[in-house]
Every structure is written in C-alpha cells, then in structure tokens.
C-alpha cells in the first residue's frame, strides 16, 4: 500500500468533515483530560493518605474539674495522679503503640492560643479548663479500635479521639469528587465514540463511489478501510495531544505557578511532575487506539468489505 495515497486520503477526509473532525478532537481532548485528571486525583489522594496517616495521633483526653461537673464520663471526678501513671504504663505495654506524648493543661492552653487566639472564646478560657491528654502515635493507624476499646469509659478518661476519622471524611469527599469526574469522563468517552463512528460513516458515504470502484478492481478490505481508520486515529491523536497539554498546564498553573497551591498549602504533599509525565503516554496511546478501533468496527458493518 502506498503511504502517499493513505496520507492524501487522510487529509481529504479531515478537510471534508472539518466540523465533525473538530467535534471529535474536542470531545476526545475533554474526555481524556478528565481521564488523566482522575488518575492524578487518585495519585494525589494516595499521596496525601500516605503522608497524613503516618502523622495522625490517637488522643486520650483526661477528665478535669470542669468535666467532673458536666460530663457523665467523668462522674467520678478529675483524673488522679495514680490513674495517669496507670494509663501511661498500660499504653507503654501495648504492642500497637509507637510513642506516647503527654500534654499538660498549660501545654494545651498554649496550643489553643496559638491556633485560635483570635477567637472570642479564647479570652475567656483559663489553663485549668483545658484537658490533659496523652497523644499516641500508632505503628499502624488502622489499629485505633485497640486503643478505644482499652480506654473508653475508663476512670479518669473523658474520651478517646482518633484524628484518622477526620481525615477519612476528607478523603471520602475527595474520592467522591474523583468518582464524579470519572462518571463525566465515561459520558464524554461515549460521546466521543459516537462522534467518531458518525464521522467515519459520513466520510465513507461521501466517498462511496470511490470505495465501490476500489472493490470492483479487487482492492482488499484493509486497503479500503485504512484511510478511514487513519483519519479517526489522527483526529483522536490530536485530541490526546490537547488533553496532555491541559494536564501539563493544569499542573503548572494550579500547583507551581498561578494559584501556586504548593506555596499556599504547605501542609499538603502534592504529586510531582513524574506522576503527570507517566500518564501522558497512556493518554496518547488511548487517543490513538480508541478512535482506530471504533472506526474499524463501524466500517466492517457499514462497508461490508
């Protein structure tokens, strides 16, 4: 097969159906940009999980005098020195515990003032109203229930709180947004495939006389189909290139410059350029193969070659 003939037919086909070709390029670009974005979002969530789950603490809050008057868990009064020693000793014996840090009422008051010093409530608080606590770092953040079971309801313990629960809500929201993006991506892929099939069929119909002559002179089925498949593949590849450009620009302007979230949100460990660059070949390959396969199956039925 002459490559020059195939290339000329591709150019003719793309020019004849310029509007539909543009629609294919745009739909493929948007759907694959969403596809790449959803993959990067998954990487970002996993990176954040690995970063934050390693830092979460379980907090065992101890009863103070104020709690003894208002909290049923502290009905037996404020925590005693013996109870604190026993709690610390028991924590040190647990195999799931990596380290234990004691926070006094004065330390808790200082931390509260640092974080919420502008709050109207901060001016009315005193150190004796704050709670002493043990901050526990676990070897496995998933083992929170071991601590909760051992210390919830114990004399001198007001509550056991797991910071992982707060993070789980955040990651649940991020995962929900990611699945919503994937649903939109799937819808856009369906639209892109429908446009590709229609574009190929219109192109084949507009050249039905040429394909008929080619069949009469004994041209093979693949020889007849190749220009149409190549047209779809080229249009898809252009859309894939645009999608890759979207992802690179989004990473650059949202994280590095423009919004510069990496500077404004120092507490978030953002994905690097390596995560973006490793997705680009997959997007380009999908943009090439998806339209080509769609055109191939559409032509088998339409041209009956």
UniProtKB/TrEMBL annotation:
Question: How does the record say this protein sits in the membrane?
Answer: Multi-pass membrane protein
In what residue span(s) does the ABC3 transporter permease C-terminal domain sit?
183-301
One Pfam family name is: FtsX_ECD
Cellular localisation: Cell membrane
Domain FtsX extracellular, which positions?
Answer: 56-160
Return the InterPro entries for the record: ABC3_permease_C (IPR003838), FtsX (IPR004513), FtsX_actino (IPR047929), FtsX_ECD (IPR040690)
A Gene Ontology term for the protein's cellular component: plasma membrane
Q: Which superkingdom, per the lineage?
A: Bacteria
Q: Does the keyword Cell division apply?
A: yes
Which terms are listed as keywords in the entry? Cell cycle, Cell division, Cell membrane, Membrane, Transmembrane, Transmembrane helix
Task: State if Transmembrane is listed as a keyword.
Answer: yes
Q: Name one GO biological process term.
A: cell division
The regions listed as transmembrane in this protein's record are 21-41, 179-200, 221-254, 280-299
NCBIfam families, alphabetized:
FtsX_actino
Instruction: Describe the family membership recorded for this protein in Swiss-Prot or TrEMBL.
Output: Belongs to the ABC-4 integral membrane protein family. FtsX subfamily.
The record describes its quaternary structure and partners as: Forms a membrane-associated complex with FtsE.
Q: What does this protein do?
A: Part of the ABC transporter FtsEX involved in cellular division.
Name of this chain's protein: Cell division protein FtsX
- Protein source organism: Streptomyces phaeoluteigriseus
- What's the name of its gene? ftsX
């Amino acid at each position: 097969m002459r490559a020059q003939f195939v290339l000329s037919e591709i150019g003719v086909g793309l020019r004849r159906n310029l509007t539909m070709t543009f629609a294919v390029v745009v739909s493929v670009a948007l759907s694959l940009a969403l596809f790449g974005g959803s993959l990067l979002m998954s990487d970002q969530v996993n990176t954040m999980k690995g970063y934050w789950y390693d830092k979460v603490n379980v907090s065992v809050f101890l009863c103070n005098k104020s709690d003894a008057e208002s909290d049923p868990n502290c009905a037996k009064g404020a925590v005693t020195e013996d109870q604190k020693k026993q709690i610390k000793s028991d924590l040190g014996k647990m195999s799931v515990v990596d380290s234990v840090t004691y926070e006094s009422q004065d330390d808790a008051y200082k931390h509260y003032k640092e974080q919420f010093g502008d709050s109207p409530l901060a001016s009315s608080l005193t150190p004796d109203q704050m709670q002493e606590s043990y901050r526990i770092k676990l070897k496995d953040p998933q083992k929170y229930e071991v601590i909760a079971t051992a210390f919830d309801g114990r004399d001198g313990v007001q509550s056991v709180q797991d910071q992982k629960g707060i993070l789980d809500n955040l990651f649940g929201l991020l995962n929900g947004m990611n699945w919503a993006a994937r649903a939109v991506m799937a819808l856009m892929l369906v639209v892109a495939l429908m446009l590709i099939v229609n574009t190929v069929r219109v192109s084949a119909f507009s050249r039905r006389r040429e394909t008929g002559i080619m069949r009469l002179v004994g041209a093979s089925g693949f020889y007849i189909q190749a220009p149409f498949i190549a047209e779809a593949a080229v249009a898809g590849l252009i859309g894939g290139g645009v999608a890759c450009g979207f992802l690179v620009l989004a990473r650059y302007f949202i994280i590095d410059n423009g919004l510069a979230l990496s500077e404004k949100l120092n507490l978030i460990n953002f994905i690097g350029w390596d995560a973006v660059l490793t997705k680009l070949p997959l997007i380009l390959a999908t943009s090439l193969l998806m339209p080509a396969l769609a055109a191939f199956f559409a032509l088998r039925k339409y041209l009956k070659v």
